[in-house]
Amino acid sequence: MTSQRTRDRLVQRLRDKGIENEKVLGVMRSMPRHLFVDEALAQRAYEDDALPIGHGQTISQPFIVARMTEILLSRGTPDKVLEVGTGSGFQAAVLSRLVPQVYSVERIVALQIQARELFHKLNFNNIALKHTDGSWGWPQNGPYPAIIVTAAPERVPEALMEQLAVGGIMIIPVGSQSGGQRLLQITRHVDGYVEEELDGVHFVPLLNGAVRQ
To answer: Which CATH code for domain 50-201?
Structure first.
């Protein structure tokens, strides 16, 4: 279930759903998603579904990963990306094959440790990790030409808006678990921000605080 044929079928499903960026599709084909999930779920790794990774979190549906990545690259390749919500590490891993530097923050330290170990195993050396409240971002390395958020706040955190570079874009799901969520593209201009609604989505909530167990 982790064969190249299985991966090719997943990529074809992504094409059928509208993903067009060949570089993104190439990374999705080559990325070993089965290593980012529990061994018991490895046989489902190349289905187009979100899967649990423990701690109340999930690895996002491959289509959503590809869709958000494609949008992020729609204006060219940024020199660095801030990811909010490392989780399994899969989204950061995909980005790391497409941009020079990825900064990723995670509030659950156990997930961050797992991701760090996997990145080391795979020799993904252009991903920097930090254990922190995701809504704070990582200001020391900003501003960022691209920010991607993989959990949904009820409103866009002000700190992330401030860390977005002029001319940069942020892809972020916004909304409550019960009231529905929207995937937004936010572009920063010299005189303010422009918000565009893209899709209806369903992400785990972006929670406050950093968890050390």
So the answer is: 3.40.50.150
Residue type, 12: Q
Answer whether 71's CB lies under 8 Å from 183's CB: no
Q: For the chain, what are the domain ranges?
A: 50-201
**pLDDT tens for residues 166-191?**
999 999 999 987 778 999 999 999 99
198: tokens are 């893209």
Alpha carbons 183 and 52: distance in angstroms, whole number:
21
Active site residue 104: no
Q: How far apart (Å, rounded) are the C-alpha atoms in residues 15 and 12?
A: 5
pLDDT recorded at residue 44: 93
Quickly state the pLDDT bin for 213 (edges 50, 70, 90): low
Ranges 31-40, 46-55, 172-181: which has the least confidence: 172-181
Tokens 């995937």 belong to residue = 183
Which of the following is catalytic: 3, 60, 88, 96? 60
Contacts of 82 (CB under 8 A, 6+ apart): 103, 104, 105, 137, 138, 141, 142, 144, 146, 147, 148, 160, 163
Whether 148 and 162 have beta carbons less than 8 Å apart is answered as: no
Enter the pTM of the model: 0.94
Q: What is the 3-state secondary structure of 43-59? A: HHCCCCCCEEEECCEEE
| Residue 199 pLDDT | 85
